[in-house]
Amino acid sequence: MLSIKPLSLSPSVPSNSRVLMLLGQLERLNREAMLADAEIGRQITAKILHLIQTQEKTRKEIMSKGSSGMEVILATLEVTGYLYICGSCVNDRCVCVPGGGRRVGVFVSKGGTGILLQLVLSGSKESPPSEELMLQLHSLLAKVGPKDRKFGVKARLNGALNVTVNLLKQNLQNHKLLLPCLQVLRVYSSNSVNAVSLGKNGVLELMFKIIGPYSKKNTSLLKVSLDTLGALLKSKTNARRAVDRAHVPVLLYIYQDWHRNDTRHRHMLIRKGVLGCLKNITNIKLGRKAFIDADGMRILYNTSTECLPVRTLDPLINTSSLIMRKCFPKNRLPLPTIKSVFHHQLPHVPAGGPVAQLYNQPLGVDDVVDESDDNDDVETENDTENEEEDKDHHARNDDIETDINKLRPKETHSRPFEELKIYERFFLELSEDFQRFIFDNPKSASPLAPAPTPAPVHTLDTINITKDHDEQELVQGMERMALEGTGPQGGAGAEEWVPDTALLLPLHDPDLYVEMVKSTRSVPQYSEVAYPDYFGHVAPTFREHILERVYGVQRTKIFQDIERLIHPNDILDKVVYDLDIQSCPVIDDGESLKFNSQFESGNLRKAIQARKFEYDLVLNSDINSNHYHQWFYFEVSGMRVGAPYRFNIINCEKSNSQFNYGMQVLMYSVQEAISGRPRWVRTGTDICYYKNHFSRSSIAAGGQKGKSYYTMTFSMTFNHKDDVCYFAYHYPYTYSTLKMHLQKLEALRTPQIYMRQDILCETLGGNSCPLLTITAMPESTSNDQICQFRNRPLVFLSSRVHPGETNASWVMKGTLEFLMGSSPLAHSLREAYIFKIVPMLNPDGVVNGNHRCSLSGEDLNRQWQSPSPELHPTIYHTKSLLQYLAAIQRAPLVFCDYHGHSRKKNVFMYGCSLKETVWQTNISATSCELHEDLGYRTLPKILSQTAPAFSMASCSFVVERSKEATARVVVWREIGVQRSYTMESTLCGCDQGKYKGLQIGTRELEEMGAQFCVALLRLKRLTSPLELRNHAHLLDVESDLIETRCKVSSPSTYVLEDEEHSFMEEVDYSAESGDEPDNDPDAADPHDNRLSDSESNNHRDSLT
Ligand SMILES: [Zn+2]
Fold this sequence. Notes:
Blueprint (H helix, E strand, L loop, with lengths): L17 H14 L6 H17 L1 H8 L5 H15 L5 H7 L5 H9 L2 H14 L5 H14 L6 H8 L1 H11 L4 H15 L2 H9 L2 H8 L8 H14 L3 H9 L2 H15 L6 H14 L3 H9 L2 H12 L6 H14 L25 H8 L56 H4 L35 H7 L5 H14 L11 H5 L12 H9 L12 H5 L17 H14 L7 E5 L15 E3 L7 E8 L2 E6 L13 E5 L7 E8 L12 E5 H5 L5 E4 L1 E12 L10 E10 L7 E5 L6 H12 L6 E10 L5 E9 L6 H8 L3 E6 L6 H14 L4 H9 L1 E5 L4 H5 L25 H15 L6 E8 L5 E4 L3 H6 L4 H4 L10 H9 L20 H7 L5 E8 L15 H22 L1 H6 L5 H13 L32 H4 L1 H5 L9 H4 L1
Parallel strand pairs: 4-6, 14-15, 14-16, 16-18
Antiparallel strand pairs: 1-3, 2-5, 3-4, 5-11, 6-10, 7-8, 7-11, 9-10, 12-13, 13-15, 17-18
Helix pairs in contact: 1-2, 1-4, 2-3, 2-5, 4-7, 5-8, 7-8, 7-9, 8-11, 10-11, 11-14, 13-14, 14-17, 16-17, 16-19, 17-20, 19-20, 20-28, 26-30, 32-40, 33-40, 38-40
The structure holds zinc ion.
The site of zinc ion has 5 residues, from strand 16.
GO biological process, one term: proteolysis
Cofactor: Zn(2+)
Subcellular location: Cytoplasm, Cytosol; Mitochondrion; Nucleus
């Protein structure tokens, strides 16, 4: 009950106001409620009502802040409501309330809903209840209810739910009363507990008495009933009830009937309402089954197809498509096992984790689908008990490290220096005295000076035996791929049509490439060479724009998929390539494309011709793993010119992709290459990426059941007859390419350049992991010079820990070429630093076409905390190098690991900041005591000013829990490198700067690598106290830092959300099949959506 305060006047209200006088009278009556005369009350309220209805001024007075007019009216309503239930005055009084949204808000905030509900209850006790009163009360509640977040709960606790339901049951023919009651019921039903209780009370059946086939009468009743029904069916209990009572075919019948008769589309909302009911029923497995049994797929497919020409019917098509996708029976991925088709025996199997699981999986267990997939529809009677409130609080930011001890430098003395001392040999420059060198001129070392270390050709060659027979196979492979009618065949044939790229690609050499391939060890023992890697890639000079998405593409593709179910006879289902079969059939009947990917970095496992020009492609898992597919690289031949080919990669795993935001696939045409255009070009139309109907085993989905794979689809017409074309996820860069490139770089060495190539270690697969040292030779052997030489700060760079992120290698290529360049900047840079570079941290992964892992089946960028020397040798030894440096007090000034990012645009960095991490959490108490140098922001800030592709806005310096074992975080915490970064380059393109609207190419990536070097030079000037004075103008960087620092404190800048915005077309990549749509684990997964691709731990469950 309201306590009635003395009437207070708003200052703006003139005291002689008539309405105030009347309100005053009312208030007195309320106080003496028991004695009051109903007739007087009625008269007064009638007068107030009249004033309110006729004078805007009066309305304002009553509603104005500080006025208690509304309270008085409510109090009157309450008091008299008890006393004169049947009084017609209620009617009048009530009408005081409605009005604009704000007035309803005031009414609610003053407790009006409760009073109305009370009146409903007390009114219901009369027999028979006053129809007029109930009509008025429900009309009011229909307006007030949606504004009151607690409405559903209040109505239930108060008992009004049943009153309304009984009223409905007794007045089914009384449309005047029915409408407001239904409107109130719709609001009740949005509360999940109410929905269950109403369902038990027979409200579903009640709704079906109102909802019927096409009729022009009472459409508003119909609309509200459908909405109410839709709300009720969100409860799984109700959905099951609807299935049990065979309501699914009824709904389908009603939908078709409206579809047929509503020819002028006047009642789209009713049709959408019916679909809404079906959509909710099909959230449960039983519902999906009932839908299929009732021929729902065909019905919705046909009606949707008929709706297609009318754009305004899109909401119907989209909802239908959503329902069909959910109900589409789950298919089995067409594989015998999801384990990689190739196997590499590990020296020892880790004790736990996904690899151990893989090794311990009993023989004969089907890992492609889950047996239990079909009965996991566990439902409880009460659905969700927690009501409106305590939902959306948790989702965000739960990955931020909050343990302050994990953010402080780690005090480790775990490795005695004796153990690290063996790494001294990788740092000869730190003790080099150059006594053997003759400096006959202060500017250059004598050409007689021996190279500081053995030539890399030699070191790399010693790894491997000469593969005589392989070489032969190689030649044969080349011949096999040789193009018909393009020059003579035979041993020397190749040379005839190798494009001469020496001028355009001075650092590429096809012959040298083939030499390098011979010593590269792959698990499948590849003997073929892919043409693009052999010929090389000359970046095109034309611009490649980010594709604008064509309206309706996704829908069209999905409908084509649904057609497979509806017209199964149209499907060829012809396997044309299959690595799981020993002989891997290559069908050559002229009717099908020929596929191949048995070359370095290739990873196509199977190709199935679905329709004449449509192919389903399955990618191979990473070796010793049963998932991680996204990267692809394969060859196609036997195409028909001008035919509209569609390719579907059907076992992608990520929940979204830049393929939905304008990224195209890369294609390399051999015909183009031999015509003088050897290059990868962005290609493909009708590209989209969406959740498909191939079920994904929980074994490969981090234990989650009921998940699906994703399809990446693109269409393509070929321009050349007898062409051989290659498709790739991104510009390939193989391990053999790296080896070739390093040799060519060696040739760039001048007497001023100190360059050394060491072999850091051997990988599990028997490939060597190169380590480069680049700096400037000292100008002379004088003590000063030698001292300057040895004491240059170190910069430590690495890249390509993730094999699928080939862009990282292209950035590294840019860095290396800049460092070996002859520009004055390059020279200054070499004089400023000693560069230690591991250009490929995961050679085995690259060679074998993995997307993310090494041969150990693990993500190497999750092993930095305690890498195993046997299982993760490249990480173990790289970390040891850094530990050695820390031990001799020479920890690098900058550490940066290059990566690629599949979901964001631009190039950006992740760094580590204790303060910024703490700012994002609630442990503010400690934050004021933390002191931190802002230096970690300088390098990215410089890059944002100098590198066109770089975007400061995308950078983040927060330490996440899921990243604690990444290079960036471990080097920061354990080695104590303040400027420890991950640099992420987009796979797609840029949405800012000079390259805005363009897809990224190798030229831009290489430029990024070069700009990184330039930025290091500026950093040098800023960090050297002596130089600082001479470069005062650069101090603006520091002031910029302060500015950005202020921005950072806002929690929303922690990491950008998936920065992509929605399109005109409502794109729905992930129609859920198992769960409620708002329960989509992908959508809720912060790692999937907002974190760095390279570092994000998509399968963290499986890693625990
Ligand atoms: Zn990565």
